Amino acid sequence: MTVRTEARPDGHTRWARGLTEVFAPWVIVIVLSVAVAWAATRAWLPTMAWGLLIALTSSVLPMGVIVWGARTGRWDGHHVRDRGGRLVPFVALIVLSGLGLTLLVLWGAPWTLIALDVSMLASLLVTGAITAWWKVSMHAAVAAGAVAILAATYTPWAWTALVLVAAVCWSRVRLRDHTPAQVAVGSVAGVVVGGGAFVLVL
Fold it and tell me: How many CA atoms lie within 13 A of 112 on its CB side?
């Protein structure tokens, strides 16, 4: 009897998997929330309070919904590779982010943080609309949007982090989760919609 064994991934594939996880959208949103909160307040307590509120409603809770769905077989993993399974995660993201935005406004958050939440909601609405008929890369959109927002918040030197965005895009294509066109459109959407909405609201 022949026993079939799964081939071990090569070095490039392992790198791609690592980049996909380290720079996953939910991770980037947490880091970005705290970074923008620091720029808005320059004080540790308000930074953690506002940053964690945004991170909770725009990253942690939505990711909880996604992980729950993956574990119960409702979609094909925590990256939701199947476009058809993305409706519920997108709705959860939009609803929870909208809740976060409402709380930011009601509790008098600094305007920069409101602009951040608006930009993330705008990105979700646009990429969600695209996903209804085509599988755009959320990894690329969130990573590129984060670079644009950091450049507007801190320094234009943040644009050099587009090198990391390119690496993330490569990882998604390498893992065959997206095509080059899908990561390219995601990147443009992140910069134009996410970054653009942030600057406009500011």
Answer: 19
